[in-house]
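hey so i finally got around to running the thing on that chain from the lab meeting. sorry it took forever, my laptop kept dying and i had to restart like 3 times. anyway pasting the input first so we r on the same page abt which one it is
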Amino acid sequence: MPIATALEPISVISNKRNLEFNNFEKVPSHNRNLKVTSIQRNNKKARIFKPLNGPKLSKRALEIQNEEFLLSKGIIIVRNNKYHPETNPNGIINLGTAENKLNNVEMLSKINDPKISTVTPEQLLYGPNPGSDRLREEIAKLLNRHFNPKVLLSKENICVGNGCGPLLNLCGEVLFDAGDAFLVPGPFYGGFEADIKYGARVYPVPVQHEKDDCLKVSEEALEEALRNSSRPVKGIIIANPNNPFGRCYSAEQLLLFCNFAKSHGLFVICDEIYGLSTWNDIVTENIEEGKTIEDYECHCDQCQHSKSIKRIESDIDGQSNKFTSIFSLDLPDPENTHGLWGFSKDFCLNGLRIGVTISYSKTVMAAIQKICFLTCIPTNIDNILVNILSDEKWTDEFILNNNRKLFKSYNHLTNSLNAHGIPYVKGDSGFFIYIDLHQAGLDEYDLWMKLLEGGLYISPSQAFFSKDSYEERNWFRICFAVEQAELDLSLDRLYKVLDTLKRNKQIN
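ok and heres what got predicted. didnt touch it at all, straight out
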């Protein structure tokens, strides 16, 4: 079956040319089928919305239903026609979702070991809502070893839950009031929008980066965003390493965020979910005796032919920085600086849905733990993670080997992009890089559709709430934490779409 024929589910998406992704305060028009009825109850008047026809929905649900969420749309298309090398070779390859598939053998071997996964009678009972003491202790030890916090973490600083998305929503419930806003450097991880807005009803206010550096944000830009916000701003949320750029903020930039927050009475939430996938730092700092950094690069025939081709530099590259955990800094306001981390990315366990909230504030942790029964994890998963993390030798070797694989895969991807003249922001962390596809000469949404029709899903800049400008649109995030054969097939499909568009432009 030809690829284009297999993609009929794409029609479920309306071909909406001008998506209003920068209108963060869009409120749906009132439902004309709703009427307000006053009733008397306990001598108090209450107003209820009563639909004339059909099921009842809250105003919150109505607003959510009317909002665009591009990441979800892309995933729906992919799931309707998912690539499989044997059963559906013409299906869509997903390089848009940030998943690491490079360590399936190692992780499955560990998890399926009976010593790791045996279920005991105790695990058939309810466990502690924030995670067991033992798990929180093991997580604290892991982060102390690798994040080097200024003040060592303990179990009291840790709350475990079913993914960083639900935990960010918990932070929204505890730290914000409904209708509040947070500053966030843009473009930003699209999940922040849904994670904290759909439940806690907290809204993002994007802050523009400097023109020549995608991870440099000035105090003036923060002041402008704060001043122009139509909602009360209560905090700053950042991702370090950054998503979608796949690189790290400098320590100076992190402190600028923290100092700005303190001076304006704001708090900071730093998402460090890729903090142990900082492959450039980890590989460079762990070169084996007798080897050089080049030994960890890809040496396939394709890379041997293309490694000498120079990269087309991006205008927004800026300065590359080593990863610095926000907790390793001399924080100006540690009680109002909070963090997120999780097992989805650094341990390739997206499907287990395990996230971690980190805070030095006893008050904040007490408030989070008061309502974390909404996000608690299964006791058998808790036990599996304890057994993995308590084997520190295996854990640290897994982290090192994972980063060596990511380093090699990034090298393979960028050699190919260089050979085909595609610019990108140079990466150093995570599973993805930001590539520039202006050369296609198409509106970003139309190009996204063409790529899907060509059998490839990568994430457009609008999924990260990019500014509606020529400079910021037509960038795409592409993930590279897949086996080389699948990565090569994905790139072949990308180049085929771009070549077809180029030939059609020449004909016309």
